[in-house]
């Protein structure tokens, strides 16, 4: 049963990139750039999927040191169909983690959409995988210092969302704004695409979060429940905030709110109850909406599709909220809620 669930979860996480993220981002750019965004998502699946098998998995989950793994499992050397990780075949664990390595670089493209050459994009995500994602995956999940310090990141608030969100901000600052930014209208070309993409992301997120338990058990059930609850909370409260602030809720706002809630619950989904998930969704709506509608225009940076505002800020909020709403049964012995909050702050 565990193996069946993890195979399903792996497929759900891939669906988040193709077609979920591709449609979500593709609908938000201008018509002339939609094929570019679709191709970037497709090639993230191809290139990152290849690099993960060659060396990415070994550097992330090899023994190594406190900061990065080793090359003992290059090309999955030493792993056979009989190898197990917990209750599932190691090959299944490899592919599940590989889907995370595929979607994380693809998330960044929304920040510099419409202004990076395809060849530069491929070089960028290759270098980024090895310099940013792999060390973080090892430090949090592979036995490195962040995980060993007691930081809680169940499904990737730090490894996936903060890493892509803050990297995306730096990338768009380095590249500078799009030609005509602030002077020309740059409306989304197809909001139905964006809604369909957001819906696929929402469904795929159950594999992303509940699958991170690596088993079909009660903790996976809790992660499934809190994931749904936080997303529902964020959709409702984002729409309410938008209604109050701008006079009416929008479909784009609801889709963005859903993603913000899903991002924020990612690190916390197995450590909080449904009440905590509601508060996390509410917080994601407030903080992400503020950064998207107030901070970005005031600072003037061109984060095309609000990757930093949603993933960077949502991931940071989720990491801190993990401690703020930590359920009593999820606390480590001898670690108070305040001490856990300090650990979470250090991890951020």
Task: Tag the structure with descriptive keywords.
mainly alpha, 348 residues
Structure description:
- Helices cover 68% and strands 1% of the residues.
- It is an all-alpha fold.
- The mean pLDDT is 97.
- The chain is globular and about 55 Å long.
- It has a two-stranded antiparallel sheet with strand order 1-2.
Give a quick rundown of the structure.
This protein is mainly α. The chain has helices at residues 2-26, 34-61, 90-108, 118-141, 145-148, 157-175, 191-210, 218-246, 251-265, 274-299, 307-324, 337-347, and strands at residues 84-85, 88-89.
Strand content is under 5%
Largest sheet: 2 strands, antiparallel
> What is the 3D form?
globular
Give the overall pLDDT as a whole number: 97
Spatial separation of the terminal alpha carbons = 35 Å
Beta strands, count: 2
Unreliable spans: none
Order of strands side by side in the largest beta sheet?
A: 1-2
Q: Count the helices. How many?
A: 12
H/E topology pattern: HHEEHHHHHHHHHH
Q: Helix proportion of residues, in percent?
A: 55-70%
Radius of gyration from CA coordinates: 19 Å
What structural class do you assign from the helix and strand content? mainly alpha
